[in-house]
Design a protein that fits this description.
425 residues, alpha+beta, 18 strands, RNA-binding
Length: 425
RNA sequence: GGAGAGAUGGCAGAGUGGCCGAAUGCGCCCGCUUGCUAAGCGGGUGAGGGUUAAACCUCCCCGGGUUCGAAUCCCGGUCUCUCCGCCA
């Protein structure tokens, strides 16, 4: 959520930002409601002040004077309540609209409508060339008996899967390897609630707007998270942190659930786009300072690149364009990993910075060196998401006979195995 | 799931209709002081809105209500604790 004061003082910045993000919103209506609310609130407060004053005198009054004052206050109280209820309903509308205003993107965000206009910043690693007919992850999975989509579909519907045997072990291994990597970087490992309240979804800016993407447990009004970012960023919500606690670096392991509404027919084969996966997410809470949060943005980007380097996978980093940014994001770098079967770099990681957009909604604050209470800046990035990452992992590392090379860094987690041999028929 | 108790400032803990944004203690900050291993003394110390600054308004878990007036009374919700049941 934007600071209402900021909107009031910089309506053009907000309008232009929304245009760059291709998000529709009504800044003028916000300004109009704001001025109405302020005017009415002033009226209500002055009546309230008068009432407070008179009401304090009542106990010391006697007889008629006392009765008169009580009578007058009864009337004044009714007037005040009437105005107050107007303020309340207008303010509710104002807050609702305020939630829909997107955070203006940074100047260095490229213009563009969707992911096709993201700008490549650099590319790392070597795209493999196979001197044999390459197999996709489905075929490799079959040779190794790693996945089962048919039975999953019968049991759980579309976009579901079983991981089995080496597939199951590979997922656990990449997750644990990544977690260890982050712990070595000073992040606190966390296993987080996968089911959260609406406030956490709103606080992290997935709602309003993303309701269609989330599974809702209607009986309990809880939501399955699409990422550990939601509970992690909400973790200290409503608190005032001590300066010494910043930066707070958290690293959460969770299952992630996505309805993939509106994606019908897209990426229907295999492990790319599925309803449930496991992910490790890194989150940083830092002081309210553009330069500091930009620095941490680079840091969390690097952490994830190192994971891909450990997995010996070729990838590129893109600067995400305005139209592909979420409502709260100021800037986002995606990491796309080379997937031979897709003949493309495809998204495996997404690193965002938010300024105080999330922390303002969450009430996530700290006391700065001068003792002033300020909103934190928040950032997050994928560390690893599986099974999507298994696609590049097994496809890039396949050998002619269908065996799969296990990267050095992963071997300790795979019981020392350096090559996965296909199951014999 | 059933029965009961509770939720107050960083923490502990008073407060059952006005003198309460809230005693007291601890913690923390500032200053003073003292030679005896650390203490003593004085002052300060929640958040949001509003104002040039003040005044002023709001907040004692959240949301309603009663009342001239609510931390305090009533209703609904959330969370915590205890006992019983169930259970990975």
């Amino acid at each position: 959520m934007l600071d209402l004061k900021f909107v009031r003082q910089n309506p053009d910045v907000v309008r232009d930002g929304a245009i760059k993000k291709h998000i529709a919103c009504d800044v003028d209506q916000v300004l109009k409601l704001d001025s109405e609310v302020r005017k009415l609130r002033a009226e209500s407060e002055s009546k309230k002040a008068e009432q407070n004053k008179a009401t304090k005198a009542i106990p010391s009054l006697q007889g008629d004077e006392k009765m008169e004052t009580i009578k007058a206050m009864k009337a004044l109280g009714a007037e005040q309540k009437a105005i107050e209820s107007q303020v309340k309903s207008l303010d509710e509308e104002l807050q609702r609209l305020l939630l829909t205003l997107p955070n203006p993107p940074a100047a260095e965000v490229p213009d563009g409508k969707d992911d096709l206009e993201n700008v490549e910043m650099r590319s790392e690693g070597t795209i493999p060339t196979f001197d044999f007919d390459q197999r996709d992850h489905l075929e490799l999975g079959q040779m190794h008996d790693m996945f089962d989509f048919e039975r999953a579909a019968r049991i759980a519907g579309s976009r579901t899967y079983f991981l089995k045997n080496a597939g199951a072990l590979l997922e656990l291994s990449v997750l644990r390897m990544s977690m260890d990597h982050m712990v070595a970087k000073g992040f606190s490992p966390m296993i987080v609630p996968n089911l959260v309240r609406r406030e956490a979804m709103e606080g992290t800016a997935y709602f309003p707007g993303g309701e269609d993407q989330a599974y809702c447990t209607e009986r309990d009004d809880l939501f399955l998270i699409g990422t550990a970012e939601v509970p992690l960023t909400s973790y200290r919500a409503g608190e005032i942190l001590d300066m010494s606690e910043l930066p707070t670096k958290l690293c959460g392991w969770s299952n992630c659930y996505r309805r993939e509404a509106g994606a019908a027919g897209r990426d229907t084969r295999g492990l790319y786009r599925i309803h449930q996966f496991q992910k490790i997410e890194q989150v940083i809470l830092c002081p309210n300072d553009e330069e500091i949060s930009k620095q941490f943005h680079q840091e969390i980007l690097k952490n994830s690149e190192e994971v891909l380097q450990m997995l010996e996978l070729p990838y590129r980093v893109v600067n995400v364009c305005g139209g592909d940014l979420g409502s709260g994001q100021v800037q986002k770098f995606d990491i796309e990993t080379w997937m031979p079967s897709r003949e493309s770099f495809s998204e495996t990681h997404s690193a965002s910075r938010f300024h105080d957009f999330q922390s303002r909604r969450l009430g996530l604050r700290y006391r700065d060196a001068e003792g002033k209470v300020r909103f934190c800046h928040t950032l997050n990035n994928t560390v690893i998401a599986s099974p999507r990452v298994l696609i590049p992992l097994i496809e890039n590392h396949q050998q002619e006979d269908g065996s799969i090379h296990i990267p050095q860094a992963l071997r300790p987690y795979m019981g020392g195995v350096s090559l996965l041999e296909p199951k014999k028929k």
